[in-house]
Amino acid sequence: MARLSINGKDVHVDADSSTPLLWALRDTLGMTGTKFGCGQALCGACTVHLNGAPVRSCVTPVSAAEGQKITTIEAIGDDRVGKAVQAAWIKHDVAQCGYCQSGQVMSATALLKTKRRPTDADIDRAMAGNICRCGTYTRIRAAIKDAAATLA
């Protein structure tokens, strides 16, 4: 039994300590906003925040998340930065198939929480490893810049 703090709520998860956080979220808790993509931390679809930093939940064991503050896509719009990113995503019509977008939004939000005026190089670094098979990278960059302008 693991005790986790997810989106500001303490929950108990009946999962082995080595279970990837992704499966505890999706299968045990029914939080399906976080997506499974590759299972090897290569695509970014499973990105969540652990103490504000983006991590790949498919390779993060539940034991590593205990005692940490976990934020998922379900709660990212609860603060000013996440709300601005979500609004920019809609404004720029970023999502095409949408499968990767929860991970993209999580990475973009983490970036803007640490760097309010990101350069293209900052965006490239922060978004590296978030793969969009539909190729909406131009719209993703525009949305991040728009959210940054809104937050300025």
Q: What does this 3D model show about the protein?
A:
It is a single chain. The protein is of the alpha+beta class and 152 residues long. The chain is 40% helix and 14% strand. It has 6 helices and 5 strands; from the N terminus they run E-E-H-E-E-H-E-H-H-H-H. It has helices spanning 21-28, 62-65, 80-91, 101-114, 120-127, 137-151; strands at residues 2-6, 9-13, 47-50, 53-56, 69-71. A 5-stranded mixed beta sheet has the order 2-1-5-3-4, sandwiched between helices. Strand 3 (47-50) and strand 4 form a beta hairpin. The chain is globular, with a radius of gyration of 15 Å. It starts with a strand and ends with a helix. The model has no long low-confidence stretch (mean pLDDT 97).
Describe this protein with a few key phrases.
five-stranded mixed β-sheet; 152 residues; single chain
Short description:
The mean pLDDT is 97. Helix 3 packs across helix 6 and helix 4 crosses helix 5. The chain has 152 residues and is an alpha+beta fold.
- What pattern of helices and strands is seen along the backbone? EEHEEHEHHHH
Beta-strand share of residues: 5-15%
Overall pLDDT level: 97
Poorly predicted runs are none
Q: Please estimate the helix content.
A: 40-55%
H/I helix tally = 6
Class from helix and strand fractions: alpha+beta
Terminal Cα span:
43 Å
Based on CA inertia axes, which overall geometry fits?
Answer: globular
User: How are strands sequenced across the largest beta sheet?
Assistant: 2-1-5-3-4
Total strand segments: 5
